[in-house]
Design goal:
The chain is an alpha/beta fold. The protein is built from 14 helices and 12 strands. Helix 12 links the parallel strand 11 and strand 12.
Length: 359
Amino acid sequence: MKILLIRLRLIGDVVFTTPIFRALRRRFPGVHLSYVVEPHAAPIVACNPNLDEVIVATRPDAKGRLAADLRLARRLRATRYDIVLDLHGGPRSALLAWASGAPRRIGYTVKGRGWMYTEQVQRDRVLRPRHSVVNQWDLLSALGVEAPDPDRDPTEMVAPAAAAGSVAGKLSSAGVEPGRHPLVVVHVSAGNPFRRWPAASFVGLLSALLEADSARRVVVVSGPSERTAAQEIGARVRATLGGAAAGLIDDVEFDLGELRALMDVSALFIGGDSGPLHVAGTSGVPVVGLYGPTLSARSAPWRPSRFVTESVELSDLECRPCDQRRCEPGDFRCLGSIAPGRVAEAAERALKRAGSYGD
């Protein structure tokens, strides 16, 4: 049997599909699993042992994408898949599912696209406190797959073989010894302005983390387009703390595979609801997540309960969650109102719960 999975676009969304691979292998022993993903999120699944094939579709904004998609459609049809699961539900993924010609094409009930599937699953458009893994798992109901369980089927990302060595070299060049210096990784950027904690808040958080333990090393990570903003945050921390900011590392860049390897030598990860948070969630590192327009009930790490997870969010705002198209109050208060001290307290609590430090 051959099964094709399609999930385009964002890193976090792709991370949340990874528990499905193991479940399908239990349900269909010997199945051949293929996955269509776009380049940005491809590293999430590139080394996954439960996939037989990763097919990287052309970037959605790439020149010549239409021709590339036609070639991809012909390739999918020639493979003769038995089942296609469209985990995305967008126009492009629906067309690829339909073009595959698979006798069973399972997707969401979406106006104008339902005819491309042989089986449709209702998708609630209301933003409910229901985890994204569970939402996507609805498509598996037609295949007789048991209910999802984070202890049995956590999210998964396997770093490339060379990533651990690369990370070790970069940390060593920065004067960091993970065995001697507890590493706290803080992701300070977000492509979506609704999920971007204010720079001043990050300055306050980083300062508190560094002042709490002089042996600690705080590694600042960000997306490539946010490097300047991240460096400005670092400069403000140094101006505030002076010599006490010696443990701040903000001039080392990590790609997605290296970021996953970095988690294996870190004591804590802190970040908003974006790709790096979900990459961290595929490891055992304690995680402190900041949630503004989204809910931790939908987006917190999906992993075994023995791993430490702290979620920081405001529970008394009527406008949460939102569709992130327009801020009704106009001031992004769902994140902006979260105080740095509250996040710092969650960080120290997570470290203590994980046994990273003594009493």
